[in-house]
Amino acid sequence: MHRLFKTLLATILLVSLTACASVPTATRSAMPDDVLPGYGASNVRIDSFTVSVPQSLKANERNLYYPVGDIVWRGEPRGDRHAQVKAIFEAGLRRAAPMIEGARPVRIDVQVLRFHSLSEKARYTVGGVHDIDFRYRLVDVATGQQIGPSKDVGADLDALGGQAAMAAEGRGETQKLRIIAHLSRVFVEELTVPGGHVNANLGLLQAINNL
């Protein structure tokens, strides 16, 4: 009933936005350790990384305004969505690594918890939010020991729609490239800024995602 209510609420909102605009609960597969504040402004650098996208996360390919699922991704041809999301995170980490210049080499292990982007219907009308959640931990390369606790991170990004989306595509600014650049910034902030990354406040659609 909760999932049905959430889907209906999102659909009603998006349909109403389409008329006036010009332009479910995620499956969790836990890593060890309690979820506590992370590593902002720590003296580390990324020596290596792993990315896990559990098969327990459900992908949804239905072309609705708000498909219910853990993975909704249409920025690439239909295929193995888990593998595509994994590659996006790996690209973000590779881009971030040279910008994290601490002295202590670490391995960062990332587990994707949710990757809910836009359906075609939402992208070509009102846009929305790329709802991205992940968990990570740091492991000291020299000792093999985990440094501190694991941390859950919300990394939502505004998702372009309608003419804005088409204009971005024309500039070569695809959904995939925007998300990779965004994840890179998130990882840099997590490991260099006191307190780590602060999730953006993206309004009502983001609030619906978090129901």
UniProtKB/TrEMBL annotation:
This is ABC-type transport auxiliary lipoprotein component domain-containing protein. The lineage of its organism: Bacteria, Pseudomonadati, Pseudomonadota, Alphaproteobacteria, Rhodobacterales. It comes from Marivita lacus. Pfam families: DUF6778 (PF20569). Keywords: Signal. InterPro entries: DUF6778. Residues 1-21 form the signal peptide.
